[in-house]
Amino acid sequence: MRKLLVRLSLFFVLFSIVTAATCQQQNATTIILIRHAEKDTVGGTDPALSAIGSERAARLQATLKEYTPEAFYSTNFKRTRETVLPWAKATGKEIEIYDTKTQDTFADLLKTQAGKTIVVVGHSNTIPPLVNLVAATDEYKNLPDNEYRKIFIVTIKKDGSSKVKVREY
Predict the structure, then answer these.
(1) Which among 89, 90, 125, 152 could disulfide-bond with 33, CB atoms 3.0 to 4.6 Å apart, if both were Cys?
(2) Under 8 Å between Cβ of 97 and 126
């Protein structure tokens, strides 16, 4: 009987630890920040994606299949909206527009989305500064004009600490 009580106690302790860890992970906020895919060389100041860019956009969801976003944000340009459109459509979500002129306010909004996964698409000179604002760092610099592969995944834990993982697609 005593062995059974010890085993049950150990089981409940382990169960409590696993449950606490799971709850903490579930309360983490994940912000996926992406520079738009390759743009067409025609179209003035608001070009659409090129054929290569459209192919990259089509791969985005498969590349990040472990994530289920609750919200999608994009700047108000064809190339940014088109980058995330296949994924947003597949999840039945609308793409919300944000203004890069108010990145401080937008970063604050993103940080308040506790426990959610959010995708943000922007530009070579707006995504790295937004990563810095969200993750409270100054590590990330503007991307070169020909760099379209980077994905920044910021995880903000319940205690406010953050971690940035950089991937490519």
Answers:
(1) 152
(2) no
Supply the DSSP symbol for 49.
Answer: B
For Cα atoms 24, 133, 58, give the angle at the middle one, nearest 5 degrees.
75
Any idea where the domains of the chain sit in the sequence? 29-168
Spatial distance between the Cα atoms of 24 and 9, rounded to a whole number of angstroms: 23
- Maximal CA-CA distance, the chain: 79
pTM, rounded to two decimals? 0.84
Task: Say which CATH superfamily domain 29-168 falls into.
Answer: Phosphoglycerate mutase-like (3.40.50.1240)
> How far is the C-alpha of 119 from the C-alpha of 122, rounded, in Å?
10
Q: Per residue of the chain (169 residues), what is the pLDDT tens digit? A: 555 444 444 444 344 444 444 433 468 999 999 999 999 998 899 999 999 999 999 999 999 999 999 999 999 999 999 999 999 999 999 999 999 999 999 999 999 999 999 999 999 999 999 999 999 999 999 999 999 999 999 999 999 999 999 999 9
Of 143, 123, 25, the closest CA to residue 80 belongs to 123
Structure tokens at 6: 């010890």
